[in-house]
Amino acid sequence: MALVARTLRRSFLETRSILPPTFLLPFRANITTVAHSNETGNLTELPIQASQSIPIVKDIQENAIPISQTPKLPHPPRPTTQNKNAPPSPLTPSIRHLLPLLHTQPSHYLTIHLHGHPYLITKGDTVRLPFLMPNVKPGDVLRLDRATHIGSRDYTLKAPEAIKGTRDNVKKILYLDERLFVCRATVVGIESEPMRVMEKTKRRQRHVKHVYSKHKFTILKISEVEVRSLEEYEALLEPHER
């Protein structure tokens, strides 16, 4: 009997330890069975009665502004097509400031571009182009209108920075306005280098082929370099702005 009582006691203790805690029990376990009476003493009064909301609604209705009396704000003016499509003026503040100073200097230099090659020139210089310029002959006067720098001993006017090229678009060089300066060059003559002979030998047949080449170059002499004044530049801009 003592052994049976010991096993029953052990099984009873094990069942008590298996029971879950009270917070895991269903919601019904927290519901009490105490009855609540509906007497007037147990009811609490509401903080705001229904009769007190009537004057608040009346005040809101009296202070409300009708929609028809609200002031109408003026619409902002729409940009015109002329201002939107108008190109920017070439007379920038830097040109307005530097051009009179450059005009008063005794001598000037330019960085001109010929077929993509830059040349730093001044009046009286001789330029030997690395190619034969087509459709020109000695004695022709050329107007050079692509320049990135106009400078003197004390001042320099630069063009905007070049736009870098990408895989789809090539590099784009921005030049100064050609009406800012006058640069003329005279074709002096055409020079040619000595005859070059290149030997090309076949690898197996050992046949030797001779290739002859003789390049020609155009010689230019800068005859005129002039920087216009601000008044002359503005006079040239007026017909285009109209």
The run of helices and strands is: HHHHEEEEEEEEEEH
Instruction: Please provide the count of β strands.
Output: 10
Give the radius of gyration: 48 Å
State the helical fraction.
10-25%
Overall geometry: elongated
- pLDDT < 50 runs, ≥5 residues: none
Oligomer: single chain
Q: What is the averaged pLDDT score?
A: 78
Going by helix content, strand content and strand pairing, the class is alpha+beta
Family: Belongs to the bacterial ribosomal protein bL21 family.
Region (Disordered): 67-91
Organism: Pleomassaria siparia CBS 279.74
Protein name: Large ribosomal subunit protein bL21m
Please give a structural write-up.
It comes from Pleomassaria siparia CBS 279.74. With 242 residues, this protein is α+β, with helices and mostly antiparallel strands. It has a domain at 93-241. It contains 5 helices and 10 strands; from the N terminus they run H-H-H-H-E-E-E-E-E-E-E-E-E-E-H. The chain has helices spanning 2-18, 53-63, 81-85, 93-103, 230-241; strands at 109-114, 117-122, 126-128, 141-143, 147-151, 156-158, 181-192, 196-201, 208-213, 216-227. A hairpin with a 6-residue loop joins strand 8 (196-201) and strand 9. The longest helix is centred in the first third of the chain and has 17 residues, at 2-18. It is elongated and about 140 Å long.
